[in-house]
Amino acid sequence: MDSSLAPIADRVRAAAADQTPLRIRGGGTKDFLGLALHGEVLDTRVLRGIVSYEPSELVVTVKAGTPLAELEAALAERGQCLPFEPPHFAQTPADGATVGGMVAAGLSGPARASVGAVRDYMLGVTLLNGRAELLTFGGQVMKNVAGYDVSRLMAGAWGTLGLITEVSLKVLPVAPGEATLRFECNQADALRKLHAWGGQPLPLNASCWVQDGEAGSGTLYVRLRGAVAAVEAACRSMGGTCLDNATVAPDWVACRDQTLPWFAARAQRPDHALWRLSVPATAPVLTLPAGAQPLVEWHGALRWVQAPESAGDALRAAADAAGGSASVFIAASAGGVSARGQFDLKSRALEQIHARLKHSFDPAGIFNPGRMAPGW
Question: Secondary structure of the chain in the HEC alphabet?
Answer without folding.
Answer: CCCCCHHHHHHHHHHHHHCCCEEEECCCCCCCCCCCCCCEEEECCCCCCEEEEEHHHCEEEEECCCEHHHHHHHHHHCCEECCCCCCCCCCCHHHCCEHHHHHHHCCCCCCHHHHCCHHHHEEEEEEECCCCCEEEEECCCCCCCCCCCHHHHCCCCCCCCCEEEEEEEECEECCCEEEEEEEECCHHHHHHHHHHHHCCCCCEEEEEEEECCCCCCEEEEEEEEECHHHHHHHHHHHCCEEECHHHHHHHHHHHHCCCCHHHHHHHHCCCEEEEEEECCCCCCCCCCCCCCCCEEEHHHCEEEEEEEHHHHHHHHHHHHHCCCEEEEEECCCCCCCCCCCCCCCCCHHHHHHHHHHHHHHCCCCCECCCCCCCCC
